[in-house]
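Section 5.1 Outputs to date
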Amino acid sequence: MNHQVITTQIKDKAANDCIAVVIPCYKVHQQILDVISKIGSECSLIYVVDDCCPEHTGKLVESTVTDERVHVIYHAENEGVGGAVISGYRAAIANGADIIVKVDGDGQMDPRLIPSFVEPILSGEADYTKGNRFYLLEEIRAMPKIRLWGNSILSFMSKVSTGYWNLFDPTNGYTAIHAEVARYLPFRKISKRYFFETDMLFRLNTSRAVVVDIPMHARYEDEESNLKISTVITEFFYKHLRNIIKRIFYNYYLRDLSLASFELVLGCCLFTFGFCFGIYSWLDSLALGTTTSAGTVMLAALPILMGLQFILAFLGYDISRVPSQSIHKKLSGWSCIIEDESK
């Protein structure tokens, strides 16, 4: 199905829905005007967030663009891509947007794909959609090797920390979200810089929101990425580990308690005991110059094997629990009840 057909269907479905676009801007002076010009008429609001850009991108937009949909938001200090997007989210929610799309201002994301990102949300299939540059195998060849390698590692870490085992390309910033879902996100707690997209997925999973990948391709030209894998790998590892612990605690011990909750604890205990006992026995035999007995080896090996089985059983259950029912309609009804009670 071509983009024109999808766009026509979106216009029909979104006749009573307001679609807003948020464009965080930092050193995108040369690309921003082209990005804005490609945003279709299906979008009612466009927020250009000048994140204390040294190139004064916001001033350029104000002095050049005559589109009445465009509104410029300025940051007195650089808050990172996450801070810029959150400012756009807040403005869009305040102005009655129903769906909020985030597009980067560097020209790597084609605004003509916006209908493809919005359609699953309008149809009730998803609460949040995100791009996936790995979906089409022929498109992978166009991706720089360092980005391909880095995104592969980050994608696996993200699957574990966010709980969305069905998603790939977690750092992809081309996204769309239903405003009712965005309204209940803890904006003050979400990472403001390069970990923003992954932290969003973690927060969405704790809300049991449905997230869908949208196949896309990205253009890599002369623009320079501000993300350097070598400088953020330590930060990403720490934050992924933190989110893994939080997600498991929230979903399996605070909000719910199931057989999988006990399998994880038992598996970790057995594996730790077997591993530590095995290391101790090996070092003791090495110091005494004796051969470790078969019974001692089995006493270390069995807990390790049993522990791994319990951990794998937990992972299997966790993978099966990827959210599958959208929540934005429920949240919309909840909002109406709260508003009625507050009157």
